[in-house]
Amino acid sequence: GLERGAKNQFSTFSNFITTINQKKEGIGNRNSPTQLVIPNIKNVRDLPPICLDVRQKQRISIDTLPQELKAPIPPEPSLPIRTKTVKDFQDDVEKAKSSGDWKAVHDFYSTTFDSFLEINAAFKKDTNSPFNTIEDSGINAKFVNVVYDALLNTPQDVQKSVLKGIINGLLQEWKGPRTKDDLRAYCILLQNPQFSNTSTYVIYAHLLRQIAALTEADHHFLVHWSKKISQRRFKQLVDRLLQFISLRLFPAKPEEFPPMVKCTWWIPSATKVLALFNAANSLISPSIISYTDFYNSTLDHIDLMEEYHNWQCYGNSHRFSFCQYPFIISIAAKKVIIQRDSEQQMISIARQSLVDKVSRRQKPDMNMLFLNVKVRRTHLVSDSLDELARKKADLKKKLKVTFVGEAGLDMGGLTKEWFLLLIRQIFHPDYGMFTYHKDSHCHWFSSFKCDNYSEFRLVGALMGLAVYNSITLDIRFPPCCYKKLLSPPIVPCDHNTLVGICDVTLDDLFQIMPELAHGLSELLSYEGNVEEDFYSTFQVFQEEFGVIKSYNLKPNGDKIPVTNQNRKEYVQLYVDFLLNKSIYKQFAAFYYGFHSVCASYALLLLRPEEVEILVCGSPELDMSALQRSTQYEGYQKTDLTIRYFWDVVLGFSLDLQKKLLHFATGSDRVPVGGMADLNFKISKSETSTNWLPVAHTCFNQLCLPPYKNKKELKQKLIIGISNAEGFGLE
């Protein structure tokens, strides 16, 4: 009904667009930052983009702008006096429902939404107060919510009157900077649930364009006001914007919208407004909604590499690309970009090797197209270190692993096992490179000083090779590690620039050393005399090979007592020492190792959490999802053997399920796209049922003999998956 009514009201929205263009011609002022026109592409693409580096810059500006901006604030026009309260409005709605007379409700809606002044008159907490702070928008949120919750249940003429009023407000010609009342009106209008309907998208698009074109100072206010919106309504706003972008890209009924060539500014405007909500979400810890709620899975179906190349070529210039707004691109889509970028780099490096060989009139060898690593199982770490050090120039070629003395051919399975065994050995506590913290179930870098940090570089290179070759690793680093790994995301040209240093907080320490972090938290909240009761100084102690060593957190720290006044500084310096300074050389080697393989502008698109998922996959196993996506060869999913198999597997403990996954795929982690991305296959083995199951890890394939009963299948399967190290040829 709303769709039909709204279309009839405007004799479609073409009249609305015509009116706007006539206004534009009448004014003749193209540079007005606030006029409502359909701009040409060039003007629209002047909207400030937010790529990762710009996003960080904007984040900083949001955090560091003064509480009260010093830009001149235009005087607020006097507001009409409106005395209706929430209860008055609710009473009017109830009376209208019972009597069928909606006049009072209609009058309220048509008056309230007729102009920005009226919106403020109705919803501003106190019409006599300016509310010029970022901390308080001055909006009566409860009243706004009640009015919008009731709107969709009113007759069509009431709903149409609201849309008419919004059009009137948007058609006002603004001159000079916006008042805070204007910003309040934009904030309120964005929450209108009518904009979930495609028939209102033309109005919604112009609202979004006006908000996108606001100054950075105005955006600063909108961001801080938005973080006060309730979680449910915040998510609704984000979902509405994502739906708007999706339906403009792939409209179910193209005739509902103007031709794409006439509204190329729709998507850039909506994405810029979405960026404001993303910024608001990042200001709060914990965030209002998950960062994954900003993903738009529709973008998985567009030409992402064209987007990526446009972004690489034009950067943050006037040409719009979704890569300027990486928060909207899903981790699955980012993985595709990184994989294809890696493949292109692999092909380029291999081609260059071939050209060099031919130019020297040497016979080409297929092995030169790969990074060939030959290792002995008995000398795994030292051989791997030597191989990667000798073949630095080949790190960006496709990886192939050979275990000396074994006949296995690497179609992917040997590579997976090499990673698994190497990681297991390097992270063993006896090896001394990493410390395992039982309370947090994660590893952290050992702070012991040594002469050679090359093994830390090896671990970084391993992580890079895993991402580069789409292998998931069972590494348990805390989130802070991945934040440091992207500090900065591109290796600086100046080798004197510090790398792997990031802002760390007590929350980061909680994820590694919760007991110590709890103690420091207690120090911050201690109500007694810190200096007399704790008798601490700005000096910390660490044990290294049985020797206690002291470190000053600041110059002459051993002579500076910790007091109630300086304890915050002490805690911050202590956390920074533990997570940055004490392990700088170890982490710098690790950082350079990772980026020696993974140097790519695609890393600019990633959040630390997304790097972790790319490296480690997900530890959450859903064997029912694996069952649904499994393919069969020689079997049908209804065959008795297959039914036995899934009955047994679904009844396994988590440990046995992980062993099965490792046996069949070479890794016990789930890739980015979930179980379906494993392409798991069960094939019928025509061998005797006395044989154990066999796996081809290169193809994620399990060869299963047709066992006679469930007990025999379970017994043979457990034996097979529990003794699954090494490769052979049949």
Automatic annotation (TrEMBL):
Function: E3 ubiquitin-protein ligase which accepts ubiquitin from an E2 ubiquitin-conjugating enzyme in the form of a thioester and then directly transfers the ubiquitin to targeted substrates.
EC number per UniProt: 2.3.2.26
SMART domains reported for this sequence: HECTc
Gene Ontology biological process terms, A to Z: protein polyubiquitination
Ranges of residues in domain HECT: 391-730
The reaction(s) this protein catalyses: S-ubiquitinyl-[E2 ubiquitin-conjugating enzyme]-L-cysteine + [acceptor protein]-L-lysine = [E2 ubiquitin-conjugating enzyme]-L-cysteine + N(6)-ubiquitinyl-[acceptor protein]-L-lysine
SUPFAM superfamilies in UniProt: Hect, E3 ligase catalytic domain
GO MF annotation, one: ubiquitin protein ligase activity
Active site residues of this protein: 698 (glycyl thioester intermediate)
Keyword Metal-binding recorded: no
Keyword Phosphoprotein included in the entry's annotation: yes
PANTHER family xref list: HECT-TYPE E3 UBIQUITIN TRANSFERASE (PTHR45700:SF9), UBIQUITIN-PROTEIN LIGASE E3C (PTHR45700)
Top EC class, one word: transferase
Superkingdom, taxonomy of origin: Eukaryota
Pathways per UniProt: Protein modification; protein ubiquitination
Record key words, sorted: Phosphoprotein, Transferase, Ubl conjugation pathway
Name of the protein this chain belongs to: Probable E3 ubiquitin-protein ligase HECTD2
Pfam families: HECT
